[in-house]
Amino acid sequence: MIDIGFSKLALIGAVALIVIGPEKLPRVARTVGTLLGKAQRYVSDVKAEVNRSMELDELRKMKETVEGAAREVEHSIHSQTSAFEQDWADATRFDALGADSTASSMVVPAYRHPGKNWRLKRGTMPQWYKSRQGVRTKVQSGAARVARHRPSPRFY
């Protein structure tokens, strides 16, 4: 690196004052300052771009390792599931020699969801709670419901 101290800067300034002259020196100094600023910004942009590309390469490598691990896990799961399915098929298969004739003709009923007994749930609520919440306890026709909620006529 170039070692520029205060004495060297003073020497460069004195030479520039003599060569360029006192009238043009401020304009030249401004131009040199703007060019140095642009050069510094360009160098910092290049550094940032290099850092971004290095991070991107690291992320790509990390992505490849994660994808490889995922493929290995998927392969092991598929191999284990196929082995499990084979074992399950072997365990659930009836041998013709060992199975009873009644066991092979036995019909297994289809699964039926137990459901919820909503009548029982409605019946467990206390009556005072039903009346406060407005739960209907008796069947009403639509016209009766409308008449119930119709405002009463007021005669003055």
Helical percent range?
55-70%
Give me the secondary-structure category. mainly alpha
- Name the overall outline: elongated
Total of DSSP H or I helical runs spanning 4+ residues: 6
Major sheet: size, sense and barrel closure?
none
Pfam families: TatA_B_E
Organism: Giesbergeria anulus
Membrane topology: Single-pass membrane protein
Family: Belongs to the TatB family.
Per-chain topology:
Elements (H helix, E strand, L loop, with lengths): L5 H15 L4 H68 L8 H5 L12 H6 L3 H7 L8 H8 L7
Give a verbal description of the structure.
This protein is an all-alpha fold and 156 residues long. The protein has a domain at 14-87. It has helices at residues 6-20, 25-92, 101-105, 118-123, 127-133, 142-149. The relative contact order is 0.02. The mean pLDDT is 81. InterPro entries: TatA/B/E, TatB. It is a single-pass membrane protein. It holds the Pfam family TatA_B_E.
Key terms:
156 residues, mainly alpha, 6 helices, 70% helix, 0% strand, elongated, translocation
Brief digest:
By secondary structure, this protein is mainly alpha-helical. The protein is built from six helices and no strands. Keywords: Cell inner membrane, Cell membrane, Membrane, Protein transport, Translocation, Transmembrane, Transmembrane helix, Transport.
